[in-house]
UniProtKB/TrEMBL annotation:
GO terms for molecular function: hydrolase activity, acting on carbon-nitrogen (but not peptide) bonds, in linear amides. PANTHER family: N-ACETYLGLUCOSAMINYL-PHOSPHATIDYLINOSITOL DE-N-ACETYLASE, N-ACETYLGLUCOSAMINYL-PHOSPHATIDYLINOSITOL DE-N-ACETYLASE-RELATED. SUPFAM superfamilies: LmbE-like (SSF102588). Keywords: Zinc. Residues 227-254 are annotated as: Disordered. It comes from the Bacteria. GO terms for biological process: glycoside metabolic process. It comes from Glycomyces artemisiae. The keyword Zinc applies. This is LmbE family N-acetylglucosaminyl deacetylase. InterPro entries: GlcNAc_PI_deacetylase-related, LmbE-like_dom_sf.
Length: 254
């Protein structure tokens, strides 16, 4: 099974940015997971509605058909704590693909988590006794506060969007805080759909961090996610005239 993990800085970020992709994955080939940081105060302490927001995220993940993971509560500036928590989670779960928000997001906590995910993906793939392994393929998605997001490819989620929308509507407390979230989610998916020649789509940006170009080739990603609207690399002779090997999921250590 190919393990796909979406990491949300807040509850509702995953449903907004990649809910359609997760809901539409073939369950005979893919194992979707959602990991979320709970919303907390400046010092990392729980707020009045923290438990409710986490419960809503758990219910939303169930709607998407994904396993749910609650990450530790952290102060808004605790980057090292985020890296440590994510590294441990990635090492235990060993995902093949990790999806999170864009590092250029306007929300400081979103940007911190995106940066921490990038570092943790690399650290988690390094075995204690061997050389570097193959890191999880890292993708970035749009969020409510993303500015000037430019995807590398789109995935048609027209058929899966109703499930993603149903999952987002589970976030009653979250939508009370950001009532325009649902409206913007529809607009973003419609705009992406226009660019992808589809009714509704989700856009993703490839990470080019150290090690990402080792991830069993970009053709793995295109085949994993089922027909994005960009031309995927095709197997064929390389520069030396040698046929490219068939694409397989990257091996996990452990």
């Amino acid at each position: 099974m190919i393990r796909v993990l979406a990491v949300g800085p807040h509850p509702d970020d995953v449903e907004y940015g990649c809910g359609g992709l997760l809901a539409g994955l073939d369950r005979e080939r893919f194992e979707p997971h959602v990991a979320v940081f709970p919303p907390v105060g400046r010092d990392g302490g729980a707020l009045h509605g923290t438990a409710l927001r986490v419960q809503e995220a758990r219910e939303a993940a169930a709607v998407l058909g994904a396993a749910f993971h609650e990450l530790p509560a952290l102060a808004a500036t605790d980057r090292s704590g985020a890296v440590e928590a994510l590294t441990s989670h990635f090492a235990d779960l060993r995902p093949d693909v990790v999806i999170t928000v864009d590092p250029d997001d306007a929300h400081p906590w979103h940007a911190l988590v995106a940066d921490a995910v990038r570092e943790a993906v690399f650290i988690a793939q390094t075995p204690e006794e061997a050389g570097p392994g193959i890191p999880a393929q890292l993708l970035h998605m749009a969020a409510y506060t993303t500015v000037d997001f430019r995807p590398d490819f789109y995935v048609d989620v027209s058929r899966a969007f109703p499930t993603a929308w149903k999952a987002l509507r589970r976030h009653v407390a979250g939508l009370a805080v950001t009532p325009a979230l649902g409206h913007q989610m529809r607009l973003v998916h419609q705009t992406a759909g226009c660019r992808a020649s589809a009714e509704l789509a989700e856009g993703f940006r490839l990470s080019h961090d150290f090690g990402q170009d080792w991830c069993a080739g970009r053709s793995l990603l295109f085949r994993l996610l089922g027909g994005p609207h960009e031309s995927p690399p095709r197997p064929g002779p390389d520069a030396d005239g040698v046929a490219a090997p068939p694409v397989e999921a990257p091996a996990r250590h452990g």
